[in-house]
Amino acid sequence: xxxxxxxxxxxxxxxxxxxxxxxxxxxxxxxxxxxxxxxxxxxxxxxxxxxxxxxxxxxxxxxxxxxxxxxxxxxxxxxxxxxxxxxxxxxxxxxxxxxxxxxxxxxxxxxxxxxxxxxxxxxxxxxxxxxxxxxxxxxxxxxxxxxxxxxxxxxxxxxxxxxxxxxxxxxxxxxxxxxxxxxxxxxxxxxxxxxxxxxxxxxxxxxxxxxxxxxxxxxxxxxxxxxxxxxxxxxxxxxxxxxxxxx
Length: 247
Ligand code: PEP
Prior knowledge:
247 residues; 11 helices; globular; 15% strand
């Protein structure tokens, strides 16, 4: 049985007063039957982790090395030290803005596993790749390249995030989401064996809102969501958590 996960990616948003959102989420969903994760920007991480009681806190990236001359970077071990239990890796904004490759993501994931973090590894096609009917090939390549051999259902979550749906208000049809999630499940089972493949949680991400969450969570092999914009306030994130809990 896979425990459902509602994950929020605050991206480069949030200041100290926004930590109040954590209190509001915990008050509303402290007894939820799903896991809740918020990944704030690095400067807020330790303060959020100190404040959160039931909500897990994660980083948005980590370096592949444990320490050294890497100005501006954060190691997986430092995220753990700050109170993180998870880290998002391979988000399309990292792949695009920072040129991260599948090899980079795999190296970071290895570092995350070694530090004891759960890696939320993101994959997803661009609009051009979907229109050229290359979606499944792209996903297949990203899964093969970005996921280390040591991954399993305990140390990894996979997020399917079509690049064209992130922050755009566009959402794939439930058939399109189901096709990709079933495909990811089959690829994980083929590579890691049925037991491990079935234990990995698969999140959908891309313009999830309170108004579309229930229909997305009804799709097979959707175990939760990775949410950007609608995770920034408790008011917007709360209906998504409620829909997941009810699914
Ligand atoms: C994301 O950045 O992971 C994301 C899914 O963003 P949004 O929900 O805003 O589309």
